[in-house]
Amino acid sequence: MFTLSEAINRGLRAGLETDPKVMVMGEDVGRLGGVFRVTDGLQKDFGADRVVDTPLAEAGIVGTAIGLAMRGYRPVCEIQFDGFVYPAFNQITSQLAKLRARSRGRVTAPVVIRVPFSGGIGAVEHHSESNEAYFTHTAGLRVVSAATPQDGHWLLRQAIACDDPVIFFEPKCRYWSKGDVTESPDDPLVLPLDAARTVRRGDDVTLLTWGSMVETCLRAATAAQAEGHSLEVVDLRSLSPIDTDTLVASVRRTGRAVVVHEAPTFGGLGGEVAAALGEHCFTSLEAPVMRVGGFNVPYPAAHLEEHYRPDLDRVLDAVDRVLHY
Amino acid sequence: MVEIFQLLGPDGDLRDGPSASAIDAELCRALFRDMVLARRFDDEAYYLQRQGELGLWLQSRGQEAAQVGSIRALRDTDWVFPSYRDHAAALCRGIEPAELLAQWRGVSQSGWDPARYRFHIYTLVLAAQLPHAVGYAIGAQHDGADELVMTYFGEGSSSEGEANEAFNWAATMAAPVLFFCQNNQWAISTPTQAQFGAPLHQRAAGFGLSTQVVDGNDVLAVHVATSRAAEAVRCGEGPAFIEALTYRIAGHSTSDDPTRYRSDAELDHWQTLDPLDRLRRLLEARGWADDGFFTHLEAEATALAERVRGACRALAAPEAASMFDHVLAEPGPALAAERAAYVEYAGSFLD
Ligand SMILES: Cc1ncc(C[n+]2csc(CCOP(=O)(O)OP(=O)(O)O)c2C)c(N)n1
Q: Which domain holds residue B313?
């Protein structure tokens, strides 16, 4: 059993061990091991030129990672918190995402950008944002989120090996939760980078979710079972591209769907999921696809965050609404 | 090597001379009082965090001279754009303990009305306040106001692009702005030698800012240097930059463990340069403060600590629906509907 943070650490370690071109770079990732200790011990074992404490400049971190990647390296950048990725937004959206297409495939930048995201830890402002939709809206990036130690480890290893840039979202409130991690890449539990995972089977309603909300949805499914409702829970894992086939197959079977994410529902990725289901499952749907998410307000102060974040009750409320439509 | 401006040595001896001409007993007592109260406030907030009353606290311990010396050199009509560790400066501006703690208790994203204190709310996204200060200063200049703008930031923040854009912008526009960098040697675990290759003051000078380097644990030097810089900015000589060399005695925040990355010896060294001890030695040596002064100040600090505890515990979380307030000037039907739906939903749990 490993915590999510340990599993990611081991994923980074495996990357550094197997490929001399892999580098880890970011603010405080070296000696300190990162503010969440995800990179703990890596600088000691791989040296300060492969596990690099950078100056405090996110645009610089991503910009130089792009340069290193052009030179054949595989940088894995850490952005300290979700709310601090914006200084790097220009480098990510205008440069990283577009290099391959702009150069007609001649220049590539296999950079991984790890971002601890979403709330639930009682943090001060700018430390709890779910900003994945800014990145899923940018063609040329792969965007994934690991909800479990298993995915923390293997999704990261796949992201590092991937020739495309990958934005890797880590639900920070899950860093300390434990789970098994399979040993071999050939284990059937190791899914491809762009596959969704059905984490619980059910027949009445499909919950489509990712990141911090996977656990919330699993708890909702357990609670619903006591009331005689069988909920299926699908963890998208890959937010761009989306594994539409898996989502559609599930919803065609259950006929009802609720998308749950922590980001504001307005303009959120849930809208894309709902639209895809509307297009592909229209005749199977017994109710409109519902969304549960953050409100269209800035993430509130810590004492209010549990009112803002979707919880078990809000998920069950939406389940009720699709069941009794 | 640039000269580090210092008036008060670590042993408390004052270098007399023309730069020290404005220094007298009254000023020293006032600055000492500010620093003692700020430290007590900071200690108290730290304990409150340890007791679970605050979610997080970023200590200002060790940086009192840099903050008090600089803010006390400004006029009340001048504006300040702080970072997030500038509690001593905030207190000097009269910001109330409850206002200062609200954000760290997690009941609000900011606690005070900036216009009331001419002290902007804290900015947690590093260096973002620097261009704001420059813009505000340009506006004040256009208005023909006799006001300057000072902005505080850490040496780590100076690596952000926005900091450097702000330096350049201010110099290009001759904005009446004073950049005050508290170089406390560490940006979380990153030391200055991993932060920049050339000293910060050199870079600032390269941008065309009129630059001074000052012993940031010497409140008198900071006060004199800031007064000089402010005077020059006011006279239209363009923007100024002060690098105050100081030290972050505590961890970066209450979540940080500084023993993971820095040595006890370094900490011990900086403890001997403590800004409060230093000024106290001067006050005693010159007979500028008697026992009564110190006893009275201690009582004042104790009373402040009590007030801080009470104010903190009294800070209640606002109603949940308040998160829908102030998002836009007018909420409009969509947000109003979202709020109404939330209120109805939340109400469904009440009997
Ligand atoms: C844009 C941005 N990136 C990263 C962070 C995370 N962070 C908060 S404080 C800090 C170190 C700041 O160091 P410095 O500017 O020297 O100020 P100090 O904390 O030492 O007062 C970091 C990296 C942030 N707040 N904003």
A: 18-318
Identify the CA nearest to A20 among candidates A68, A78, A86: A68
The domain of A250 spans 197-323
Closest Cβ–Cβ partner in A87, A124, A295 for B124: A124
How distant is the Cα of B154 from the closest Cα of chain A, in angstroms?
11
Other CB atoms within 10 A of residue A58 CB: 26
**Partner-chain contact A30 B189, CB within 8 Å:** yes
Q: In whole angstroms, give the CA distance from residue A229 to residue B197.
A: 63
The number of folded domains in chain B is 2
Distance CA B153, CA B151 (A): 7
For residue A52, give how far its alpha carbon lies from the nearest alpha carbon of chain B (Å): 10
Q: How far apart are CA A289 and CA B6, in angstroms?
A: 68
* CATH number for the domain that contains residue A261: 3.40.50.920
pTM above 0.90, yes or no: yes
A4-18 vs A149-161: helix crossing angle, rounded to 10: 30
What's the CATH code of the domain at B259? 3.40.50.970
From the candidates B261, B286, B339, B342, give the one annotated as an active-site residue: B261
pLDDT digits (tens, 9 = 90+) for B299-325: 999 999 999 999 999 999 999 999 999
Residue A322's alpha-carbon distances to A70, A287, A312, B301, in angstroms, are 49, 5, 16, 60
A303/B322 touch (CB, cutoff 8 Å), yes or no = no
A238-278 pLDDT, tens digit each: 999 999 999 999 999 999 999 999 999 999 999 999 999 99
